[in-house]
Amino acid sequence: MKLVEIAAPDFDLAMTLDSGQVFHWQKIGDGFVGAIADYAVHVEQDGDVLKAKMEGVASATPGSLIPPVAKLVKHYFALDHPLAAICASFPNDPAMSAARHFCRGLRITRQPKWECLATFICSSMKQVAHIRQISKALRERFGVARKIDHQVVHTFPSAQSLAESSESELRKCALGYRAKNLLATARLVRSSEADLDAWSALSDADLREKLCTLPGVGAKIANCVMLFAYERLRAFPIDVWIERVLREKYFPGNGKTTTQRLREFSET
DNA sequence: CTCCAGGGATGAT
DNA sequence: ATCATCCATGGA
């Protein structure tokens, strides 16, 4: 199957996939394989060009179309975001300049909402290597297997399939105490008590408040989901690393700067 | 306000 | 080979 070529200026695929916003892509040879929503995708970068192909099965809905791979990949990796303009809008201080240089080509992806929410519920108190294991285990146990490049890729399980599971089944995926939260949130999403799509219409503040009502979602995870799935580019997740950098670079020698103060600072 | 839960990768000893 | 450290949320 032939690779489709997609223009990808100001983009670094490996950096984007390794930046802690998505956890299931596998490096295979010159490229990566993974799932974008229900489709198995192979993607590799050659300078300013992305080369991609996909395998997918149309959903059971008659008449549903398989999107062209270029459209799917462009949307997922947000190749339409004006990255140069976004970077130019950042504060011009030494720490930000260093960060801009270091992260050249890192884009904020547009991930499916449920997949992103569920993955970040699993991420709490875990390091990236663990989150990858959990994502893999959940996909292999509850997702749908698809083939590409003779590799098997698993889609992320639906809220429905996790909701029908049990806490003890989920615990087998190395979730620990997160299993309870994931199960409870899956049931809220399945029942449409938590209507993730409808929440797209909410303001940033209202969306954050809604997300934080879900079990296992606090301020940090809500901001991750807003940023990586709701395209709220003003959201600013503060994890321990960002907190350390903020304290060191912007509040040096002020030991009693509160997390609340850091949040207010990041919002301006 | 403080303390704690559960667990696998990672790096130090 | 053993040991300390990393981590966000929610409940006691």
Keywords for this entry:
alpha+beta; 268 residues; two-stranded antiparallel sheet; DNA-binding
By oligomeric state, this entry counts as single chain
Largest sheet entry? 5 strands, antiparallel
Order of helices and strands: EHEEEEHHHHHEEHHHHHHH
Give the uncertain stretches in residue-range form.
Answer: none
C-alpha termini separation: 48 Å
Please work out how many helical segments DSSP would assign: 13
Mean pLDDT: 93
Largest beta sheet: what is the strand line-up?
A: 1-5-4-3-2
Describe the structure.
The chain has 268 residues and is of the alpha+beta class. Helix content is 43%, strand content 13%. The strands form 2 sheets. It has a 5-stranded antiparallel beta sheet, covered by helices on one side. A two-stranded antiparallel ribbon has the order 6-7. A hairpin with a 2-residue loop joins strand 4 and strand 5 (49-55). Helix 5 (113-122) runs antiparallel to helix 9 (178-190), helix 5 (113-122) packs antiparallel against helix 11 (219-229) and helix 10 packs across helix 11. It is globular and about 55 Å long. It starts with a strand and ends with a helix. The structure holds a DNA duplex (13 and 12 nucleotides).
SSE order and pairing:
Elements: E1 4-7, H1 13-17, E2 26-28, E3 31-36, E4 39-46, E5 49-55, H2 69-76, H3 83-88, H4 94-102, H5 113-122, H6 128-142, E6 145-148, E7 151-154, H7 159-163, H8 167-171, H9 178-190, H10 204-212, H11 219-229, H12 240-250, H13 259-267
Antiparallel strand pairs: 1-5, 2-3, 3-4, 4-5, 6-7
Helix pairs in contact: 5-9, 5-11, 10-11
The protein binds a DNA duplex (13 and 12 nucleotides) through helix 6 and helix 11.
